[in-house]
Design a protein that fits this description.
InterPro entries: P-loop_NTPase (IPR027417), Polyphosphate_phosphotransfera (IPR016898), PPK2-rel_1 (IPR022300), PPK2-related (IPR022488). Pfam families: PPK2. Residues 29-253 form the Polyphosphate kinase-2-related domain. It comes from Candidatus Sulfomarinibacter kjeldsenii. The chain is an alpha/beta fold. It has one domain: Rossmann fold. The protein is 49% helix and 12% strand. It is built from 13 helices and five strands. The chain has a five-stranded parallel sheet, sandwiched between helices. It is globular and about 75 Å long. The mean pLDDT is 96. Bound molecules: adenosine-5'-diphosphate (ADP). Residues 92-96, 123-124, 128-129, 132-133, 138, 195, 197 line the site of adenosine-5'-diphosphate (ADP).
Length: 277
């Protein structure tokens, strides 16, 4: 079964995250083999991104969500890092600024959506407005509960413009999160990543689970599917995401555009210039 089918959330399906194994290992591949495959895939992804840029007809939006320490930054580095920076744009969504707060919640995300030919990567996204906002009662339920429909309409709008939307929930379990916090604490090169939020959010684990489950089931659509990616093992996570993105991009059957000039004419001029020295 392809990873697309295996990890995609069926539109409307109820998800129970604690029933999904965050420890998944791909069948028949050990870690070294998986890492070799990831290297091949990132080369493929780089070429596909180049083709998307050259074709200049469609764009790709990758949405990454997950709990603290789920591996959003690592995914960007390992899976999308080898792409050409000229054709990609990463946007990290933080607590909204005063100006952002004065607009509707989609305003800042719409501005960051990839234009034709580009790959856009959202590190957190418009989903924060039905996740952290819901868990901490930052706006009343009657406001956030309408946002699922707004999100689906927004993503439909992007799709109608030729944007392929792929959304990944990086699924780690409680023990793995604590383990990663410990590594951040004990490794001087990772200390900078520790934030108070890591610890203040942990008691809200179940509230986040409920919020994520709702978002995944209400907003996984044919044109903008969610994937629940087991992420306790970083290499398995990278493999699954790279396979899904590569599969999707290959399925677009993109073509290099026809040259706008007459190649025979150019060839003739070139030979003339060559003869003239
Ligand atoms: P990250 O954890 O993404 O590496 P930060 O430590 O700066 O980066 O965390 C960003 C914070 O911004 C997160 O706690 C996240 O929940 C919060 N945030 C993002 N979007 C919103 C939003 N719309 N409303 C409130 N908080 C938000």
């Amino acid at each position: 079964m392809s990873y697309v089918k295996k990890f995609q959330v069926e539109p409307g399906a109820r998800i129970q995250l604690d029933k999904i194994d965050a420890d998944f290992k791909p069948k028949g591949l050990d870690r070294d083999e998986a890492e070799e495959r990831i290297r091949e895939l990132t080369v493929e992804l780089r070429d596909l991104q180049h083709l998307m840029y050259a074709e200049d007809q469609r764009s790709l939006l990758i949405v990454l969500q997950g709990r603290d320490a789920a591996g959003k930054d690592g995914t960007i580095r390992h899976v999308f890092g080898p792409m050409n920076p000229q054709g990609t744009r990463v946007t990290s969504f933080k607590v909204p600024s005063k100006e952002e707060q004065a607009h509707d919640f989609l305003w800042r995300c719409h501005k960051a959506a990839p234009k034709r030919g580009m790959v856009g990567i959202f590190n957190r996204s418009h989903y924060e407005d039905v996740l952290v906002v819901r868990v901490h009662d930052l706006v009343p339920k009657k406001i956030w509960s309408k946002r699922f429909d707004h999100i689906n309409a927004f993503e439909r709008l992007l799709a109608d413009k030729g944007t392929i939307v792929l959304k990944f929930y990086l699924h780690i379990d409680r023990d793995e999160q604590l383990e990663r916090f410990k590594k951040r604490m004990n490794n001087p090169k990772k200390n900078w990543k520790i934030s108070d939020a890591d610890y203040t959010e942990r008691p809200y684990w179940d509230a986040y689970t409920e919020a994520f489950e709702d978002a995944l089931s209400k907003c996984s659509t044919d044109i903008a599917p969610w994937f629940v990616v087991p992420a306790n093992r970083k290499w398995a996570r990278n493999l699954v995401i790279a396979e899904i993105v590569a599969d999707t991009m290959k399925g677009l059957n993109m073509r290099f555009p026809e040259p706008e000039v007459d190649i025979e004419e150019i060839r003739r001029k070139y030979h003339e210039a060559e003869r003239a020295g």
